[in-house]
Amino acid sequence: MGNAQSPPADPRFVSASRAFTQNELEELKSLFMSLAAQSQNNAKHISSSVFQVYFGLNGPLGERMFDLATQNRKDQKLSFEDLVVAKATYEKGTKDEIEEFLYQLVDINDDGILGRSDLESALIAMLDSIFSTKISGTGLSSHQDSVNVFLNAGMYSKNEGCNEESMSFEDFKAWCTLIPSARKFLGSLLMHPDPGRPGCQVPPLLHLKNIDSSILLLRKEYAWHIGGALSQQELEEWKLLYHSALNGLSFNTFLGSISNDEGPTLLIIKDKEGYIYGGYASQPWEKHGDFYGDMKSFLFQLYPKAAIFRPTGANNNLQWCAVNFSSESIPNGIGFGGRVNHFGLFLSAGFDQGHTFTCTTFGSPSLSKTGRIYPEVIECWGVIKGSQKENQDAVKGTVLDRFKEDRHMLNMVGLANSSE
Hints:
The protein contains 14 helices and 15 strands. By secondary structure, the chain is α+β, with helices and mostly antiparallel strands. The protein folds into 2 domains: 11-186, Orthogonal Bundle (Recoverin, domain 1), CATH 1.10.238.10; 231-386, no CATH class. Strand 4 (205-206), helix 11 and strand 5 (237-243) form a beta-alpha-beta unit. The protein is elongated. The termini are far apart.
């Protein structure tokens, strides 16, 4: 009678525990005890509401995450073992294990099929969470147009027994590559929503106060999308450097407007077909007779579908900026990827036409409807990195300090207020 044994431990929990250090397990235990104490169930389990509030989740994504964490028991009770297993799979698993978890997460209806409506619900929940806005009094999302462009990046197929188009696991993984901001957001939901949680950052868009923001191509949802392919340091501030409606469709004016900016830039084009796309230039736009740049550059689409196309490594033909060359083999203008006269994206020096072709440099398709570009609006933003901002402030400080020193010297010799 004295040999009664404890029930055997859940093998999933035993395996999941090995993914954590002892300190990490102790921290998870402390977190569990804290949340369970708030759940009003004798501190034995975490309730769905407490779980969602702590992790900053709500709506269908929050409910679905809780179901997955509790292994779909539907008992509204999350145990310590559940928490360890969920975080081990979601945060410590292999790339495929994590993406399989995410695939199940966005299957909001929990029917084993990722329908277009499932992904739509997940995207609405994401954008409402990031931007904290809904249409007043309706409960509807104010981001439906943006949701549609992100949905349009996906590949869907018709399945038997399913009334709508759905997405396979392989197609979901491809979609995550094209929409890296969504992948970052979905992959960080079991982190506490402190400022800076991956997938939530939207860079401030700086421009002169007298500019009507409705003329800008770069909406905040598009900035979130592009920012998914960048580091935290590159999401500090984005500053409008050039806009064709304000500065005119001029290559020389464009180059003059960005000449004082030494950081990366975002070139965005809206063509006369209404398509919006562009490229992230990691290096300054400078006169070259050949391709230059590095593997941080990429192409993107914003409308009617959104996608990011990063370098494939097939070649080093990243950026192109040719000014006042007379040779046909060196076309004047700016571009990204591909090869001479067959670029991934190219604007002629007249800023009145260009082209976009399928491009092995970025694995990108033609970005426009026809392959020809007839610009309606051209816009360029400077990416102000954290270190770059500090350097600018330091230079300003140095100039001011030097001015004070010079002023002091002039005062000493009685010339500070001289008009000569």
